[in-house]
Structure formats: C-alpha cells, structure tokens
Automatic annotation (TrEMBL):
Source organism of this protein record: Actinoplanes awajinensis subsp. mycoplanecinus
Superkingdom per UniProt: Bacteria
Residue span(s) of domain Mycothiol-dependent maleylpyruvate isomerase metal-binding: 13-136
Matching InterPro entries: CHP03086, DinB/YfiT-like, Maleyloyr_isom, MDMPI_metal-binding
Name of the featured protein: Mycothiol-dependent maleylpyruvate isomerase metal-binding domain-containing protein
Pfam families reported for this sequence: MDMPI_N
GO molecular-function term, one example from the UniProt record: metal ion binding
Amino acid sequence: MPTIAEDLRQIHAAAVRATVDLVAHATPDDLTRPTPCARWDLAALLGHMTAQHHGFAAAAHGRGADLTVWTPTRPDADFLHRYAEATTAVLDAFAPADVLDRPFDLPELSTDRTFPGHLALRFHLVDYVVHGWDVATTLSLPYAPGPDTLAATLPIARAVPDGPTRLTPDAAFAPAHPVLPGTDPLTEILLLLGRHPSRPGASA
C-alpha cells in the first residue's frame, strides 16, 4: 500500500506537469507580459521556475548547497523546451524510493540546516501550484487544479510562516491576505501566499 508521501509524490508530479501545459500556450511575444509577481514579467517568472526545478533536482542529488544551480537566466525563444527539460529533471530527481528521506540543501530557505526530502517535496508542490496560477493569469488561461492537488496543497499553504520576512525583496511570497469563511481552496491558497485572485495585478 502506498504511503501518504508516495501519494503526494504522484500529486506533485501531476501539478508540475500541468505547468508545462500552461507554458506551452506562451509565445516569445508573451515573455514581456507583466505577471502577478511584482517586478517580474513572464520571462523572469519562467526563468525563476526553470531555475527552481534545477535547484531542487540538484538538492535531491546532494548538490543543493551550490548556489549556481539556483541562479535563473532570462529565457529566450527556446523557453518551452528548456522549461520542459527542467521539469523532467526535477521529477526524475524525486522518483527514487529513498529520496523522501534524503537531506536537501535549500539555501533560499536556510543555510544552517537541511530539510528532509518529504518536506522539500511539499515546498516544491505549493510553489508550483501557485506559479501555475501565475502563468495562467498572465496568459488569461483557465486554471483549475484537481481536488486532490488542492487538498494536499492547502495544509502546506496554511503552514507557511507569515510575517516581516515576507516583506524582503527576495521573499518567496508576499504577506498573506485575509481569508473569509467559505473561501474555496484555490483562492485560500493564493490569498495565504500573497496573491489576490480578484486583483491579480496587485499580487506579489
């Protein structure tokens, strides 16, 4: 019988692959479009997403402390191929049976400790559910992750610390917005992580 972590790995893979389908709708002319991420156009967002895939893949192989593997580059017209390659790399890196117990160096989160693979998987999942929305919103595409994906991601989003660290220029997420009772799971995830679905241009 699969464990919860193994089930989450399947959900993670589906969520990450869904971002490839979204990116496939973009053209080179779209790369200068503004995104819900403050100060980033689509090229900067895709550069970040591609680099994060490579960084997490490197971390799974014990090389996450090398800051160069996390450094984004601005994509060119070949952005879809490069993004799809990075997606394959990170999903392959999370595939081995023992990866969920491996120590991951994630220098953007801490330089003083490592994180177990099952936590790294959760960090990556929530990031790409949110970045999937960022890409879809930028391109005016529908975005509807499945209920299993949202059920797995919402507790992670609720556990992400809020506070002054979200105000720094390199913060992964902007400060959380209030969540009203009865808010649907996707909207709650986005609000908790600093997006504002009703005003996507005001998100960060």
